[in-house]
Backbone:
């Protein structure tokens, strides 16, 4: 208990003083995870909508696979991306391993199934309501998909925040492909793991605090947006 | 002008999963009339409308537009509870034009004109989903009208509206008919059928039992099913 309260007192120091090094770590975390979610969404949202609306062979199988991959272990994704990007790997020549870009790629892959599965669910619900109307107006599948993605935009914002939550909280993938290099690829989760094992509990704890506050803020933001959108647009 | 009429249904049946919904439907719809389809719940009114519109495919028989099987663009269906997209009333009307392939430069002006004809210019920029039921139905009618249909199908367009809203929707339907479109609609409101219909098609258990000019129908229906329907329905 003494450890915890002592660490807590020390932890608040850097948070309040906005220690420059700490801020770099937080900024990198945000940058990597935001980029990962946006990159992932470019593919995962249309894929999820296609799974909801499309009528093609293998749709059910693909849905099961996507749903199953929601629980993909971060370390396994890290390992796969590591193999792809390592010098002997197929994408080795790009020299991306141990860079923030590698971390973005790993997190994008990690959250893609989550984004696609939740998007499929959201769009499928809307499709039940819209189907007859859109068919009646003569919309093609492609038009229906873009209409549904636009009309569920507030729900999809929440979906993307869920993806962001998963990305910023994971440690396994970024540790493997980023390497936790000080000042280059060190993010909040990897620092927490490192500082804890080194015994620097105050720094670990202050990073942990920031992480929790960030995640809470994001969820509050999602909630408020949802309420506002429903009131404004029905 | 290129015509899509007559719409002919010959020997049409609809029986999804072997459940008979409609059978032996022979029907010819010509330009200009206001036709009301009456019948009890489950008599197949909505299915008949969706078949004619093209949302459903008949399990037997043929549906032809001026002799052709291809479904023409110049026909619309407005649902009992129209789906409003999460955007403004104006954007909802423009959306129909966009899907129909109208170039974006002309969409907004056409959509505005359609909203004006249904008396909703003042609500053009409001989110469509927060409008009242009657206003939403008028937006849906504007969305259909903007497409300049030669025939408009209406599935119980006023069933979930209060009397005042129903009256304003009825007025729009009359205006669309006057502007030259044929109307085929279902309703449960016999007063509305009397006010609007030129002719009545009566459906019972998936079959057409009669097709009669509206005045005659309400004075002396020809089929016993229609007679008992009218006696049961009228207060």
Residues:
């Amino acid at each position: 208990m003494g450890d915890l309260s002592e660490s807590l007192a020390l932890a608040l120091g850097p948070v309040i003083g906005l220690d420059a090094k700490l801020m770099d770590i937080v900024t990198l975390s945000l940058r990597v995870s935001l980029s990962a979610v946006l990159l992932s969404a470019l593919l995962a949202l249309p894929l999820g909508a296609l799974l909801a609306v499309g009528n093609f062979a293998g749709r059910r199988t693909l849905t099961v696979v996507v749903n199953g991959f929601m629980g993909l272990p971060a370390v396994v994704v890290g390992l796969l991306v590591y193999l792809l990007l390592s010098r002997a790997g197929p994408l080795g020549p790009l020299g991306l391993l141990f860079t923030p870009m590698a971390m973005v790629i790993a997190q994008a892959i990690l959250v893609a199934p989550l984004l696609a599965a939740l998007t499929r669910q959201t769009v499928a619900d809307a499709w039940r309501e819209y189907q007859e109307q859109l068919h009646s107006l003569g919309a093609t599948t492609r038009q229906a998909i873009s209409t549904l993605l636009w009309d569920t935009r507030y729900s999809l914002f929440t979906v993307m925040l869920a993806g962001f939550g998963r990305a910023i909280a994971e440690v396994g993938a970024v540790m493997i492909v980023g390497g936790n290099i000080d000042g280059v690829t060190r993010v909040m989760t990897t620092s927490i793991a490192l500082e804890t094992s080194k015994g620097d509990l105050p720094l670990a704890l202050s990073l942990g605090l920031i992480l929790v506050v960030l995640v809470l803020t994001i969820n509050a933001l999602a909630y408020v947006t949802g309420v506002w959108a429903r009131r404004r647009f029905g | 002008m290129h015509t899509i009429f007559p719409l002919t249904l010959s020997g049409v049946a609809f029986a999804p999963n072997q459940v008979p919904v409609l059978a032996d439907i022979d029907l010819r719809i010509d330009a200009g009339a206001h036709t009301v389809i009456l019948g009890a719940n489950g008599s197949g009114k909505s299915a008949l409308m969706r078949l004619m519109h093209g949302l459903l495919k008949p399990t037997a028989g043929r549906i032809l537009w001026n002799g052709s099987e291809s479904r023409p663009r110049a026909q619309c269906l407005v649902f009992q509870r129209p789906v409003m997209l999460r955007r403004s009333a104006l954007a909802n009307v423009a959306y129909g034009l966009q899907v129909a392939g109208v170039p974006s430069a002309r969409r907004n002006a056409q959509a505005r004109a359609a909203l004006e004809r249904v008396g909703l210019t003042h609500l053009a920029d409001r989110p469509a989903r927060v409008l009242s039921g009657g206003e939403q139905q008028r937006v849906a009618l504007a969305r259909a009208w903007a497409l300049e249909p030669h025939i408009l199908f209406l599935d119980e367009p006023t069933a979930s509206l209060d009397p005042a809203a129903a009256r304003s929707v009825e007025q729009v339907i009359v205006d669309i008919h006057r502007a030259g479109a044929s109307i085929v609609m279902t309703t449960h409101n016999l007063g509305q059928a009397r006010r609007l219909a030129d002719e009545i098609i009566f459906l019972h258990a998936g079959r057409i039992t009669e097709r009669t000019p509206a005045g005659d129908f309400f004075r002396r229906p020809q089929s016993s099913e229609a007679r008992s329907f009218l006696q049961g329905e009228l207060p």
About this structure: The helical segments of chain B are 45-53, 89-99, 104-117, 133-145, 163-178, 190-196, 214-219, 224-233. The mean pLDDT of chain B is 93. Chain B touches chain A through 21 residues (CB under 8 Å).
